[in-house]
Amino acid sequence: MDSHHDDYIARATAHDGLVRAFAIRSTGVVEELATRHQTYPAVTAGLGRLASGALIMGVMLKQAEHLLTLRVRGGGPAGTLLVTANGAGEVRGLVSNPQPDVPQSRNGKLNVSGVVGRDGQLTVTKDMGMRHPYSSTVELVSGEVGEDLAYYLARSEQVPSAVGIGVFVREDGSVEAAGGYIVQLLPGLSEETVGEIESKIRALPHPTTMLRSGDSPEDILTRIFPAGYELLDRIPVRLHCPCSRERAERALMLLGREALEEMRLEGLERGHTAAVCQFCAAEYRFTTAEMDELIEQSRAA
């Protein structure tokens, strides 16, 4: 399950390393997320913004296998939004209610805070391979996702960050553009330079306006740093889920014998029992005979 080869993050520094900057195009990833979860437009935008932000924050981690999880519980009709990304540019995500029955747009804009809710929390968990993952929770400031991530980075990581992330959904529900940028200001910058960068960012068009007009991630960085920046690398990003038939089987075994017998009965008419991955909607089918075998194994366990 790989998405668009065109999706990537440009990672850069500017002003002698005192500014860290990331720009992403994630159109294919967000389109695939929307297709897999059959999300309504405003949910596509909310989940897509969260996935785009998670991909950038994921590549900020030191190692490819380090994991970052963003969980938004905003009290809105979409329920919980959950996205996991790693340091290698891979992401997966899910949402409790992909099709909430509420107006999908407000004043000509997708109603993201209306489906996400504003009254809740963003929890960021980093699993760096230590015994205990690091977790930090902040209150939501707007339910628009980008502002909430900026608030988290300033509050919990003490790094003033500008976050601009967007998803443009066409009338038919497909994704035309997704992506944006995160710019982080490190200590040591002069107030004058900070002012210049802030005014450049304030003057930027909306992220999806730039992407739809053909801007690459590097073009976005050039708009922010017209005097130049140092491109460190380009990291391809994709939707990727580590689920497998073996994992599905292990998960079934954990349910215990009674639950397995019940599932086997329910699957008799179809001739199989299906286990579906919540993250990527992949379906793993187990025949009645295979279910009998699992039930036998669970008796023996």
Give a written overview of the molecule.
With 301 residues, the protein is of the alpha+beta class. It folds into 2 domains: 8-239, Hsp33 domain (3-Layer(bab) Sandwich); 245-300, HSP33 redox switch-like (CBS domain Like). It has 10 helices and 15 strands. The strands form 4 sheets. It has a 6-stranded mixed beta sheet with strand order 9-8-3-4-5-13, with helices on one face. A hairpin with a 5-residue loop joins strand 10 and strand 11 (175-185). The longest helix has 19 residues, at 41-59. The two termini are 34 Å apart. The mean pLDDT is 94.
Task: Note the topology.
Layout (H helix, E strand, L loop, with lengths): L7 E7 L4 E7 L1 H11 L3 H19 L7 E7 L7 E6 L3 E6 L9 E2 L2 E2 L1 H5 L4 E7 L6 E6 L6 H10 L5 E9 L5 E11 L5 H12 L4 H6 L4 H8 L5 E7 L1 E2 L5 H11 L1 H11 L4 E5 L6 E5 H13 L1
Parallel strand pairs: 5-13
Antiparallel strand pairs: 1-2, 1-12, 2-11, 3-4, 3-8, 4-5, 6-7, 8-9, 10-11, 14-15
